[in-house]
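Handout, section 3.2

Students often ask what a structure token actually looks like in practice. Rather than define it abstractly, here is a full record for DNA ligase D polymerase domain-containing protein. The first block is the sequence as you would receive it.
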Amino acid sequence: MQARAAAMNDPHKAPISHPERVIFPDAGYTKGQLAGYYEAVGSLMLPFVATRPMSLVRCPQGQGKRCFFQKHDNGAFGPDVHHIPIREKDGGLEDYIYIDDGAGILACVQMGTIEFHVWGSRIDDVEAPDRMIFDLDPDDGLDFAVVTRAAEDIRDRLAGLGLTSFAMLSGGKGVHVVVPLVPGHSWDAHRDFAKRFAEALARAEPERFIATMSKARRKGRIFIDWLRNQRGSTAVAPYSVRARDGAPVAVPVTWPELRKMDNAHPYALVDADVLLKRGRAKGLDGWGVADQGLPES
Ligand code: ATP
Ligand code: MN
Ligand code: MN
């Protein structure tokens, strides 16, 4: 009930209603625990979510019940959740959601949000992406060691192009390889670069990688999902809880840590203290930060 107490002390923060409501039925975790988690890890999470257009996975009846992906504001989030009009493909403007502080995160939780997904650009210039993500989606049944090795190979190939990258466990099945970039290129340039990179890898090692979404052709391979790098795409944010059994969390890891992992969901909502301690430790304090631009090609 930590979240509720803190919210009560700050009139700007909407209190969490029904903190006792069970949101994760298998594990028995409540809405109050979910809010407590996000309040605890807010300082770690905010640098990666604040001022980015956001999509939310909301599950008002709890995980396992009907969840939906929400991109646009419906006006019900209150003053801590902000709007940014963004041009849609059809030319019209739509209000997207963004937050800039912990109160914003909690306002989303109050509305039944479990997962936070963000754009690869910020509200000051949504047309100028500042990161690239290679989302490694393994075929069912692939050993996780195969996935970590693939992530390392992608890291090495990126390093060959002068790019530093970082690994995140998705909290689901795969790993995201994250490349921070100084803004300065268009979405099309990012998309094309990511596509060419993934296709080159799939061509070089067709028995390991595939660069098309086809599940049927994934057999025993890893899909390098470069589509996260298109304008309007999102990826799950670091430290977001996932709406999956056990309330796993998306977690940044160091490359040496990644090698020791047996799955993409070693941490969960109840591990906030552990995550805080490790998130502030040397090795992770600079995670996701690098002063580098997209190579000219
Ligand atoms: P996993 O490791 O299990 O693949 P993931 O978060 O990478 O976890 P994906 O299925 O690969 O999951 O999805 C990649 C991204 O696509 C998500 O993080 C999310 O931002 C976006 N996405 C997922 N579902 C939707 C949806 N219904 N509408 C729009 N975007 C979605
Ligand atoms: Mn994925
Ligand atoms: Mn994917």
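Discussion prompt for tutorial groups: The CA atoms of residues 104 and 248 lie 21 Å apart. How would you have guessed this from the sequence alone?
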